[in-house]
């Protein structure tokens, strides 16, 4: 017996609005609704209108039938095999299906096909569905199909609601386009369709995803002429579009204006600025945004920045050693243990604190590293020593050197540069540093590097004689005695052969082998003596003791070479030719150096010119011209 039919009239729709949604949500794959005889002519006119304009740029019914698969397709039965992952298309359909359940005006049937009873759905219901679809994700095709259906089948004239839906659909990152939105705006003007603020708001949203400076400027100009106000959402779209356009100053200026207005600015917008400006290195602007965000957290109890934001900002600020930013992030996130930065970032924080003399920040970074069990190296202690010396705390700086030696590290002359920079400004500080070393000897084993830096500063202030007297007390300060750098410091200021011989004997007593730098000092000092044959002897020893893993043997420095070459010129030494040839082969001397050698004694210029002629790679003509000038 057939069931009674329920007449769905206006009263039904008033009492149960979901009756139309249930009808739209039924699955179908093609249009089977019979058309009136005049339908072909109306459809042809509609299709011609769509081809001339971009309002309903959706596929025609025939195209929908070709691009969709029939629902009668045989589906495989579920088996015990492994569960397959959903494809992107299946995930999109599942999302829109959930969206249809949450909102009564979004039929899930518009995802791929149209319901065969769609003609029974009121037009106002379809318009309501279009309105709701505007705020959903990935609804480009459902919107264009519904608009195409309204124009082709319902014979709806182009109006502001349809244009707004199509413009909103172009917000899609994959299918949308600012050019299409601009074309739709031109059609609105050409067809004299009344505009609404919502149309311009939709255009601004399109330019936020697909930046178009001209379209944005035209929209703002039209809105100003029509006295349309800009809501906060439109302002946000303008700001995002400016960011995408690379107009960072304008975007930051509009953000400041928005922050001053009595509106609730979303936190994700400030996070977007923090990430963008932080990556670009606009640290002053990033700090301004971050401080405003913190004021909102303290006063209005807004949501604070996430740990990811704090971590990113600390990484960017420490990368560029931006101290105010590093200090702010450290106090608000690392000190309360909200984030735990990696060791590399902590090292950059330590270096930043060292550069700006922040002892508390430097000690905080050291404590975090120590708590992790990280073995501190030379670069950690060097930064810690530097931060103390920024406050002229000489005692703590020398103490750090002693702690380094206690930790099994070997500081050298390069480690003590901050201490030397402080000591060289005052001889009184040098005496104070020596007294501090005697005090620290009672608690630590003073390393030779600590004694060497004080010895270097003493030689800079008082010369070799004062430094030599201080050297005699080295065993009273350093239990291990002097090292090679101790003798290198003394030999830099030494000019007498007697003192050089004493230091050479001291090195033998401590079983220290001369280095390249020490041999160079021996050659320079020997060249200053009446009998300079020892300089050639030290030069031979230097070359013989060169490491075997280097392509070129050791050779003296330019300063020592010039001293020895001058003596050879003055004494008409026949060894000058070979010596000069080797220096020229190593590209040690410049043309100015040659001029200086030739000006030592004009009467020996002929000897110099004859020796230079044996060097095949040297240019003869410039040398002759130089000899004439000399």
Distance separating the two termini: 131 Å
* Residue share in β-strands: under 5%
Query: Sheet bearing the most strands, described?
Result: none
Structural class by SSE content = mainly alpha
Number of helical regions: 34
Categorize the overall geometry.
elongated
Computed CA radius of gyration, to the nearest angstrom: 42 Å
Unreliable runs: 1-5, 18-54, 56-79, 616-630
The beta-strand count equals 0
Helix percentage range = 55-70%
Average pLDDT confidence is 81
What can you see in these coordinates?
The protein has 630 residues and is an all-alpha fold. The N terminus and C terminus are likely disordered.
Keywords:
630 residues; disordered N terminus; mainly alpha; single chain; 0% strand
Chart the SSEs and their pairings:
Elements: H1 10-15, H2 18-24, H3 39-52, H4 61-67, H5 88-102, H6 123-133, H7 140-152, H8 160-169, H9 178-190, H10 197-209, H11 213-225, H12 232-245, H13 248-260, H14 267-280, H15 283-299, H16 307-319, H17 323-334, H18 343-356, H19 359-371, H20 378-389, H21 394-406, H22 417-423, H23 427-440, H24 448-471, H25 474-477, H26 484-492, H27 497-509, H28 516-527, H29 533-544, H30 558-570, H31 576-585, H32 591-598, H33 605-612, H34 620-629
Helix pairs in contact: 6-7, 7-8, 8-9, 8-10, 10-11, 10-12, 12-13, 14-15, 14-16, 16-17, 16-18, 18-19, 18-20, 19-20, 20-21, 21-23, 22-24, 23-24, 24-26, 26-28, 28-29, 28-30, 30-31
